[in-house]
Amino acid sequence: MQDFETRFREARGLQEAGLYSEAKAEYEKIVLDYPNRLGPLQLLAWVNSQLGLWPESIDSLSKAIELSPNDPHSYYIMGVVMCKFGSWVAGIECFDRALDLNPNHLDALCDRGSAQLELKQFDSALASYKCALTVNNKYAAAYFGCGNALSELRRSDEAIECFSAAISHNPSYYEAYINLGNIYHEEGSFEKALKCFEKAISIEPNDSLAHANRSIQLKYLHRLDESLASIDIAISLKPEYYDAYWNRALTHLLMGHLKQGFRDYQYRWETMHFQPIKRNFHQPIWLGEGSLEGKTVFIFNEQGYGDSIQFCRYATLAKKAGASVIYEVEDALLPLFATLDGVDRLIKVGERIPKCDYYCPSMSLPIGFGTDINSVPCSVPYLHADEEKIRTWENKLGVRKRPRIGLCWSGSSTHRGDKRRSIPLIELFSYLPAGFEYVSLQREIRESDNFDFKNRSEIKFFTQDLIDFSDTAALASTLDLVITVDTSIAHLAGALGLDTWVLLPHAPDWRWMLAREHSIWYPTMKLYRQEKDRDWSSCLVKLGQDLSNFLLDRSNP
Predict the structure, then answer these.
(1) Could you tell me how far CA 120 lies from the centroid of its own chain?
(2) Are the C-beta atoms of 404 and 439 separated by less than 8 Å?
(3) 437 and 327 housed in the same domain
(4) What's the order of all strands across the beta sheet hosting 525-529?
(5) Beta carbons of 145 and 124 less than 8 angstroms apart
(6) Rounded to whole angstroms, how far apart are CA atoms 425 and 448?
(7) How confident is residue 555, by pLDDT bands cut at 50, 70 and 90?
(8) Is residue 217 part of a domain?
């Protein structure tokens, strides 16, 4: 019979080679022959956890702890098993016990930090990783953990330092390059992010995530053909990478490849982001297969208010194709959508859905109607303000002494792109010339913006009177011009056929495309674009100049 050390070494070799079932069988034999040896019990627990055999893993660890109650490593492995099972609190308790026995247990410190991150205990996680660095200030995994905690705490500069330190101590640290690239992306440093993802690809050339992230940076840098090539590599490496398909859709749409883009956009329903709002129907989805003549189609909105306003135009096309159209609408949009041609019945979200032959989310309708860049249905207005509400607003505003300009400078603060699309009111207003009456079209004013203007009269605010979009539509319809960032107000003004100027970030949403001064979706809309990411100065200078010319034109009809 082979001696213990030889058998133990061979079993570990099987485990390290990924032959977990074979390693498990060998460990079990060793445990039977050497029941008082700690190592085989601990590694049997490891391999059982790698096989997903949680009860057996815990049983082996319980025996190991009974055999040697003061061995910290058994408690550490127990913590790892608990965390793999999703029991983060129990895992932390085990790591704490291991650290009671050995305060310098590096892996216990770092894995405790990881568990605390899962529980969103970011300050505690940071403390755990910092403790690990006091034990070994060259431990790359601890710097990596610090970077993750600092990133969650929005301490980006410190996170960058920690990820960079992790890389300096482990130049092949693929995950550190990925996370460092993600922070650079959030900070708008797309060139730096691109270099990080390209370095990650050099380390792990067959990892789809790095190729997908590289594609996103290239898109933000307006290198769209390269972006598509990179995302295609990601998809070839992972054919069920639905987020990659979705990002490919956004790139195609940004390039004006609408047919291909909207087809790929269907993959959104397979992504984690959209799964919670995916709806299932017994009826088939209508994507152009089959005539709508004499059929009833159920249309529903799916994303933000701006998306709903932009794509509701397709209900009219469905009606012209012979369908009876039932449209489900959010409460805030219901009075406004009552003016939309082609809808046979509006229902509120939450109401019982009537009998229908087909269903279609509003943003899938372009597929069925074969929309390409030359066939966008862009006749405006397709929504209308209530005449009585318009008269009410005209009375409230009083006698017009100067041209009236509507302003919207920020969207929802929870929007993923809010930092790039919204403008502080004080910054916008510093570029706006005198000679106009400015009117806020915002329902909500951020505290910082409200503070800047609460004692000033240059802008009229009506936040309490803007109950739903029909109120905003009526107010906007009394104005000479609407100036807005990329939010639902842009779509509302465009759908109403109002003169509208839209301020766009350097990396715009797909629907605005690149380099165009006018929107293919709204013919009365003019687009102003940042020259550099998060730098509104040149864009606002041009806006101010055009406003001055607008005033001159009004003064000299």
Answers:
(1) 19
(2) yes
(3) no
(4) 459-460, 437-440, 404-408, 481-485, 500-504, 525-529
(5) no
(6) 9
(7) low
(8) yes
Give 500's strand partners: 482, 525
Same domain, 346 and 481: no
CATH number of the domain enclosing 177: 1.25.40.10
- With respect to residue 273, please indicate whether it lies within any of the assigned structural domains: no
Residue 413 CB coordination number (10 Å): 10
Q: The tokens of 369 are what? A: 């109607």
Same domain, 359 and 260: no
How far apart (Å, rounded) are the C-alpha atoms in residues 361 and 406? Answer: 31
C-beta separation of 28 from 59 below 8 A: no
Asked if 261 and 288 sit in the same domain, the reply is no
Q: What is the pLDDT of residues 15-50, one digit of tens each?
A: 888 888 888 898 888 888 888 888 888 888 878 888
Q: What H or E segment, with its residue span, contains residue 339?
A: none
Q: What sign results for the dihedral spanned by CA atoms 172, 176, 181, 187?
A: negative
Tokens of 159: 């996170």
The whole-model pTM stands at 0.88
**CA gap 461, 478 in Å, rounded:** 15
Q: Measuring CA to CA, which residue among 413, 380, 390 is closest to residue 309? A: 380
Assign 77 a pLDDT band (cuts: 50, 70, 90): confident
| Cis-peptide into 523, omega within 30 deg | no
pLDDT tops 70 at residue 336: yes
Same domain for 352 and 470? Answer: no
Mean pLDDT over 343-369 rounds to 96
Quickly tell me which residue has 């959010």 as its tokens: 330
How many C-alpha atoms does 527 have within 13 Å on its Cβ side? 23
For residue 363, the domain's CATH number is: 3.40.50
Angle at 144 between CA 138 and CA 148, to 5 degrees: 150
Sheet holding 345-348, edge to edge: 345-348, 324-329, 296-300, 358-361
Instruction: Look up the domain containing 536 and give its range.
Output: 387-555
Per the CB < 8 A criterion, the answer to whether 165 and 143 are in contact is: yes
What tokens does 309 get?
Answer: 């306003």
Handedness of CA 18, 19, 24, 30 (dihedral sign): negative
- The pLDDT of residue 479 is above 70: yes
Enumerate the β-bridge partners of residue 504: 529
Same domain, 260 and 407: no
Beta bridge partners of 482: 406, 500
